[in-house]
Every structure is written in structure tokens, then in C-alpha cells.
Write a structure and sequence with these properties.
Four Helix Bundle (Hemerythrin (Met), subunit A); about 150 residues; elongated; 2 domains; mainly alpha; about 80% helix
Length: about 150
């Protein structure tokens, strides 16, 4: 069998396995809401929840160009994987652009969450902390009934 075809098949399979694992993780995350800082905002009191979500929407609106660049990079990577001859350098560059866009957006969202937390009540920060710990696999102790 042609070594290039084997290499292309291997790269495509790794890419598909990653996509399936990511999709499964996303579905699992949907069934366990509140396990990230963003999702923790849903547990805040109504007024604070509205401010929290508004702040995150603002970050996404301000980061629209970065989001679009990340999406374009993923489309480019998919198109490169479809080519009969795989250009690994171009594929690596496209995936790096997508990864950098994702990291930029995450950094901006986390910074906005920090700003929100700095002006929040201790109770609201506790909700965010609990969600962060659950994300790390730690469960808060059950409250004892009187």
C-alpha cells in the first residue's frame, strides 16, 4: 500500500477519533450542567446571572473576528485532510491557528469571569468555586441535616 495513503489515513483516523471524543465530551457536559465556570453562572441569583451572561456575550461579540478565524482554520484543516496528497505543514499550521483562536477566546472569557468575581458577593464566588472544583473532579461534602 502507498505510504502516503497510509499516513493520510492515519491522520484522518486520529482526527475523527478526536472529533468523536470531543463530541462525546460535549454530550456528557450537557448532561452535567454547572461543571464549568461558564455554566456555573446558571446557578447565580437571577440578577447576577443576567449580568454574568451579558458579560460573557460581550466577550464573544468583541472576539467575533478571532472566533471566525478559528472556524475558518478548522474548515481549512478539514479541506486539507480531504486532499489526495496531504500537506502536513499546512495542516499543522491550520490546526495551530484554530488552537490559538480557542486559547485566545478562553483567556478572554476567563479574564471577564475574574472581573465579575472581583465584584461579586462571597456567596456568588462560592457558587463559582464549587463549579470549578466539580470540573476538577472534586465533589463538595454533603450538607448534614439538622
Amino acid at each position: 500500500m502507498n505510504p502516503r495513503l497510509v499516513a493520510a489515513s492515519l491522520v484522518l483516523n486520529v482526527f475523527l477519533i478526536g472529533a468523536l471524543a470531543g463530541g462525546a465530551g460535549w454530550l456528557i457536559g450537557k448532561s452535567n450542567p454547572g461543571y464549568s465556570l461558564e455554566a456555573a453562572g446558571g446557578r447565580l441569583p437571577a440578577a447576577d446571572r443576567k449580568l454574568f451572561r451579558q458579560a460573557l456575550r460581550e466577550v464573544r461579540r468583541e472576539s467575533r473576528d478571532v472566533i471566525l478565524d478559528g472556524q475558518a482554520a478548522r474548515r481549512e484543516a478539514a479541506n486539507l485532510l480531504r486532499q489526495p496528497t496531504l500537506d502536513t505543514t499546512a495542516l499543522a499550521a491550520a490546526l495551530e491557528r484554530a488552537r490559538n483562536a480557542d486559547a485566545t477566546i478562553r483567556t478572554r472569557l476567563e479574564q471577564r469571569i475574574i472581573e465579575f468575581a472581583a465584584s461579586s458577593s462571597p456567596q456568588d464566588r462560592q457558587l463559582l468555586a464549587d463549579a470549578l472544583l466539580r470540573r476538577a473532579g472534586w465533589q463538595p461534602p454533603a450538607k448534614k441535616s439538622p
